[in-house]
C-alpha cells in the first residue's frame, strides 16, 4: 500500500495543505482513491494522455461562461477595444495561449517535468503568496525558455 508513489503523493498532499492549494489536494486525493481501489493501472495512463485536454476544456468552459450567461456581450467587446489596455490584454491573452500550447507539447513529451512545475507552483504560492495557475503555463514558459536556450547553444 505505501510504495514510493503513495509516499510521494502524501508528501505533495502535505505540502499542498500547508500551501492551501485546494486543486493540488483534490487531484492527489483522486489519485490516491484510484490507487486504493486498484483501478490506477487502467486509468493512470489514460488520464496522463487525455487529462491535459480535459483541463483545457474545463478552463475554456469557465472562460466562456460569462458569454453564455449574457454577462458579456458584443457591446462589451466593442467597448473594450476602445481602450489601449484592452489591446494589451488581447496580445497578452494570445501570448499566454501560445505559451500554453508549448506547455502541452512539453508535458506530453516529458511528463516528469510536471513534478518540478508543481513544486515551483507550490513554493511560489506558499512563499510569495502567488496564485496557482497550474503547471500548463509554467510548462509553456519552460518550453519557450528551452527553445531560446537551444537556439543560442547550437
TrEMBL record:
Its main location: membrane. The keyword Hydrolase does not apply. It is found in: Cell membrane. GO terms for cellular component: plasma membrane. The chain crosses the membrane at residues 7-34, 54-74, 86-104, 116-144. Keywords: Cell membrane, Membrane, Transmembrane, Transmembrane helix. It holds the Pfam family DUF441. It is a multi-pass membrane protein. It comes from the Bacteria. HAMAP family: UPF0756. PANTHER family: UPF0756 MEMBRANE PROTEIN YEAL. Belongs to the UPF0756 family. This is UPF0756 membrane protein G4Z05_05960. It comes from Neobacillus thermocopriae. The lineage of its organism: Bacteria, Bacillati, Bacillota, Bacilli, Bacillales.
